[in-house]
Amino acid sequence: MAGVRAIAQATLARARRTAHPSRTVAALMRTEPISRTFGLERGTAVDRFYIERFLAARSPLIRGRVLEIGDAAYTRQFGSAVERSDVLHATGEGGEATIVGDLATGDGVPEDAFDCIILTQTLPFILDVRGAVANTHRALKPGGSVLATVPGISQISRYDMDRWGDFWRFTDASARALFDVFEEVEIATDGNVGAACGFLQGVAAEELGADVLEARDPDYQLLITIVARRA
Prior knowledge:
By secondary structure, this protein is α/β, with parallel strands linked by helices.
């Protein structure tokens, strides 16, 4: 332990002697983010850009009876041939809830009911993620699909941390293991070091440029997308 402290103290001493870091390093080494609300006041949050692109590409699966969490915004935006739209909420707040239930325990969530479940950025705020995924599987009709996204690299959502708890970040490997209850699973990742740095600083997607947004680096997984089908 003493050796670790000595190394840390030596590193700090060297940092203090570096009075004029390069402009590139200085731009990266902010101790306060540009935005603490994911850049939403500046434009589209970077993770939302990836989420919406994913849902647009999977629009044909958003059909029949569709369940979304919290509100039905993405069902309305990306749905195709939606016959019925349901919204699951843990407390029934917000005005759009048609089902009040607990995805982790399955209480209040109907079984064999939905053709599609949109589960975007929900699992980080559920402590029992395995229970939530298992109950998602049970809630689908045979042949139904869940379109899920989870964060890989992200700041804490302070609003959700204070309300529900912000528990998890994921990788493609953990997402694949988590969704192993499903018979067919497709996993993909979005992000790279530039997009991740911009997102953590609160830069909007519109400010990054297409070259940064489009590049994929599997070692910098900003977002993981999952298409899981029940047999």
